[in-house]
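Quick review question:
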């Protein structure tokens, strides 16, 4: 009987993945690997999601921290470690590519800094590869996940502009989505000034302390920061998890500073990469032209200058964590709240760290031994239109768990993701079915209600559904 349950659970998991496979985000990574151990850390994590993110290239580049050399061999070493555990990963979820398919995707940028690598005759294996992928007959966007300098992309854009027709260049540019971990060379600002139509996510300025992405490793007073501690990393990632875990280096400056550049590409029911303003594991960002007077010099050596266009950049959330109650209602709001741009990222930190730890377990454990995320199922549409004052029900009764674990439900209003900023009473938020009344409004408003389902496995894993409610005035 147990084997039948496990087999059924596996089928459910696979079926869920098949439904998601058409939505896999394409990504090319630009990495200044060896400038800081965090690039290697982020690469280890990325490969654990290689079944859900379509990796199209990994390019060794320079940055302000690594100006005259590139290290593709370091990428190769991590992929080879992944290859040793790939067969075991495939027991847990399908579509993990073999190392032999990933190794040819390692490309080289020029071993020069910034704009010295942009212009006539400055093509590289990496810049040509970006163009080749953009030329493919694939309607999906192409994400450029930039962990270091961005001059390889700048050269690709330069060549497209100077060799393609205006119509073809426009078509190719429209497919690009760029997330850069701050500016780490002087070609980033050049790109934004010369290609104003480009979809670009960035925390501007070179003081990393003001960047949203630092929420991944910021120590936050008043919450439990265990999941970014060195002891947690050693236990759950580095030791006893096979060669891929052993390839994960110790922290030098900050743990996984580059990971936010791809976290929102993971299909978990919360993330929507095309809508940075909705928020997700990689943070929340809004489209506006930043005020240069608020930019500060600091953490890097890249010269900063005013933005000449709107970019997707820092946004703020007000967040009150939920805590476990020893008696009575299982989940309740904490007594303290937090509000800033980093909150938009670290509010999900325990969830994505646990997910990382579980996938690292998959490297060595059987399906029966390891934990797998729940599969939330709504009994209604994910987009609902209501009239102010109208009652309605949200229900996730059909939600399942691949391992048969007990589940905790949590529904909450995410006001910053929609236009309606008022409170919405959800009653007992930790049940599978909640009854609500659409609030009174004097104009059309949207409200985002998030369902988070968490199992009681080890580590506890969460998955989500986002319900977008359009509210019409009565």
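Suggested answer, residue by residue:
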């Amino acid at each position: 009987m147990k084997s039948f349950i496990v087999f059924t659970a596996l089928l459910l998991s696979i079926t869920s993945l098949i439904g998601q496979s058409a939505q896999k985000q394409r990504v090319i990574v630009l990495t200044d690997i060896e400038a800081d151990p965090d690039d290697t850390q982020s690469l280890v994590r990325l490969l654990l999601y290689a079944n859900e993110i379509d990796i199209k290239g990994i390019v060794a580049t320079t940055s302000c921290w690594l100006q005259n050399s590139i290290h593709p061999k370091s990428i190769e070493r991590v992929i080879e470690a992944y290859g040793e555990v790939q067969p075991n990963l495939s027991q847990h979820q399908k579509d993990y590519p073999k190392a032999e398919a990933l190794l040819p995707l390692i490309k080289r940028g020029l071993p020069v800094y910034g704009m010295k690598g942009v212009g006539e005759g400055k093509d590289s294996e990496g810049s040509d590869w970006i163009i080749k992928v953009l030329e493919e007959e694939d309607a999906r966007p192409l994400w450029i996940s930039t962990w270091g300098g961005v001059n390889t992309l700048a050269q690709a854009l330069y060549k497209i502009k100077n060799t393609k027709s205006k119509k073809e260049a426009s078509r190719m540019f429209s497919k690009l989505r760029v997330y850069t971990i701050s500016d780490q060379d002087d070609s980033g600002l050049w790109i934004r000034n010369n290609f104003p139509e480009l979809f670009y996510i960035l925390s501007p300025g070179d003081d990393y302390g003001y960047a949203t992405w630092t929420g991944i490793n910021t120590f936050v007073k008043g919450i439990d920061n265990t999941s970014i501690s060195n002891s947690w990393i050693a236990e759950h990632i580095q030791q006893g998890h096979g060669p891929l875990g052993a390839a994960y280096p110790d922290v030098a400056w900050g743990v996984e500073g580059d990971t936010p550049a791809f976290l929102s590409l993971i299909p978990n029911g919360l993330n929507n990469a095309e809508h940075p303003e909705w928020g997700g594991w990689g943070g929340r960002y809004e489209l506006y032209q930043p005020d240069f007077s608020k930019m500060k010099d600091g953490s890097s050596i890249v010269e900063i200058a005013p933005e000449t266009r709107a970019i997707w950049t820092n946004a703020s959330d007000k967040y009150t964590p939920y805590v476990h109650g020893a008696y009575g209602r299982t989940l309740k709001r904490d007594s303290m709240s937090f509000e800033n741009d980093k909150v938009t990222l670290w509010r999900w930190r325990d969830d994505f760290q646990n997910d990382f730890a579980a996938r690292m377990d998959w490297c060595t454990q059987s399906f029966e031994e390891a934990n797998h995320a729940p599969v939330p199922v709504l009994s209604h549409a994910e987009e609902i239109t209501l009239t102010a004052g109208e009652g309605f029900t949200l229900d996730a009764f059909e939600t399942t768990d691949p391992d048969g674990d007990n589940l905790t439900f949590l529904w909450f209003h995410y006001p910053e993701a929609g236009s309606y900023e008022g409170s919405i009473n959800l009653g007992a938020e930790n049940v599978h079915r909640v009854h609500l009344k659409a609030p009174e409004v004097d104009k059309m408003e949207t409200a985002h209600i998030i369902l988070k389902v968490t199992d009681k496995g080890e580590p506890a894993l969460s998955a989500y559904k986002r319900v977008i409610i359009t509210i019409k005035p009565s």
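Why it works: DSSP finds 13 helices and 18 strands in the chain. Confidence is low (pLDDT under 50) at residues 1-21.
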